[in-house]
């Protein structure tokens, strides 16, 4: 499959490198508006055509698919042009700036029988695959909560707030792992520097009393990537910064009962073993791009398709609405 890649800033080089490492794909052209980034791309990939115009790449007849790796406000226009030119689309998270744009792209892809995949990279990590398995096979029991901290100093984005930058990771994981769609959202935050919220907290209410919370922050002195998932049977801690043992499963929990004749609840704590399962190794982005090529070749829609991207954008849109009302509950 022949790819054109648009955007060669921070993440673009990873997409190009991984596409070039696959047996079944080739990068024929890169479009980048920055002359410095074009120089970097040309030096790293002398055999690839590097141009300034995205239109030139999108209209090229030799290209089958376009990877859109530019800032979020450009995704809609570029992905739309790619679909209109008959190209499959691999597009970065967050899918689009508004849900109306996302809906239009999803419908256009259906009309043209083309695939859209939204780069929700974490879904292809060994840790998230294992978490999904533990939830689906009932090892954790009924889910109670998902609580994630994703903070570090910088990289400030200029076109979106910290929720749109960092929360898509957790929102895509929740969308994948938690049964049912969220019913309501509350978000609070503050913009200290460039008019976009740089510290934010988001709470989502899912069906069956599952609650999720995300803490995202560009002003943290330390980097933390820590997620707790609690179930009735077991609980897990995923520390993505750990080199080994990223995932720890605790056989801990709370049992509540009442004895006949007693009106007070009896709370007992279970404290059993902890184990750290082996996780699949390998670069998540590579696995994801391999899956994209497979989906396009077989004509099947990926599970992280445009509709999955759209569900995440809807959550972000409602979170922004709640942010604007200083944390009012907003229904999805
Ligand atoms: N999946 C992940 O884990 C992950 C990680 C980082 C970034 N991202 C996403 O990747 C996208 C890009 O992020 P980044 O950090 O690389 O940003 P960046 O600003 O470093 O790079 C974007 C590049 O796109 C170029 N560009 C902008 N408009 C263009 C156009 N019309 N045609 C050609 N080039 C254009 C810019 O010149 C810039 O070099 C964002 O959507 C971001 O959310 C995803």
Name the average pLDDT. 95
Give the biggest sheet. Answer: 9 strands, mixed
Continuous helix count: 9
| Ligand catalogue | nicotinamide-adenine-dinucleotide
**Poorly predicted segments:** none
| Sheet/helix structural class | alpha/beta
Strand order of the largest sheet: 14-13-12-11-7-10-9-8-15
Distance between the termini: 38 Å
Measured as a percent range, the helix fraction is: 25-40%
Beta strands, count: 15
Gyration radius over CA? 21 Å
Helix and strand succession? EHEHEHEHEHEHEHEEEEEEEHHE
Strand content: 25-35%
Shape: globular
List keywords for this structure.
single chain; 332 residues; alpha/beta; 9-stranded mixed β-sheet; 6-stranded parallel β-sheet; 9 helices; binds nicotinamide-adenine-dinucleotide
What does this protein structure show overall?
The radius of gyration is 21 Å and the shape is globular. It is built from nine helices and 15 strands. α5 packs antiparallel against α9 and α7 crosses α9 (306-324). 34% of the residues lie in helices and 30% in strands. A hairpin with a 5-residue loop joins β9 (199-205) and β10 (211-217). The strands form two sheets. It has a nine-stranded mixed beta sheet with strand order 14-13-12-11-7-10-9-8-15. With 332 residues, it is an alpha/beta fold. The protein has helices spanning 12-21, 35-44, 54-58, 72-84, 99-112, 126-136, 162-177, 284-298, 306-324; strands spanning 2-6, 26-31, 49-51, 65-68, 88-92, 116-119, 143-153, 184-190, 199-205, 211-217, 219-231, 235-239, 247-257, 266-275, 330-331. Bound molecules: nicotinamide-adenine-dinucleotide. Nicotinamide-adenine-dinucleotide is lined by residues 6-12, 31-34, 37, 54, 69-72, 74, 92-93, 119, 121.
